[in-house]
Design goal:
Length: 152
């Protein structure tokens, strides 16, 4: 019984200490490259050097961030005006909202993993598949999304 209590207590403490960080681009570069990002730590110290599914991501104006691997993830993503997310048709996992005020290239496969809102200040065309898992996807009012492939 004591072992179960200790396990549950450590699990709770461990999960309670998971904090989202904000990753803001400081230069153009790779998504998986630490030197691309400035990290704002919520509490404690950052345990990751590149964005993950608990993290908020902002790509600053004039910066281009390139995906080099499938399943890059974020809690929220803002692509600023004149900024670019170059996806090379890689897969993106969105665990929250995705806002495009710049450019997304490469027709990514986007999997929305929780309740999410997609918004874009410009019409958005994507030929990559969109998947909606574990929640709902809301397309913000006034957004035009052109798709030539599947939405699941």
């Amino acid at each position: 019984m004591n072992k179960i209590f200790i396990f549950l207590a450590l699990t709770f403490l461990g999960l309670n200490n998971i904090k989202a960080h904000t990753f803001v681009s400081k230069a153009s570069g790779g998504w998986s490259t630490a030197s691309t990002w400035t990290i704002t730590v919520v509490t404690g110290t950052a345990t990751n050097t590149t964005p993950g599914n608990l993290d908020n991501v902002i790509i600053n104006p004039g910066h281009s961030v390139s995906l080099s691997a499938n399943a890059s993830s974020f809690k929220s993503l803002v692509i600023s005006a004149t900024a670019t997310l170059a996806t090379a048709s890689k897969q993106i996992w969105a665990y929250g909202n995705m806002t495009n005020n710049g450019t997304i290239t490469g027709n990514p496969i986007i999997t929305f993993r929780q309740n999410s809102t997609f918004s874009s200040s410009t019409p958005y065309t994507n030929t990559g598949d969109w998947y909606i898992r574990e929640g709902n996807l809301t397309i913000a009012s006034g957004v035009t999304v052109s798709r030539n492939s599947s939405m699941w």
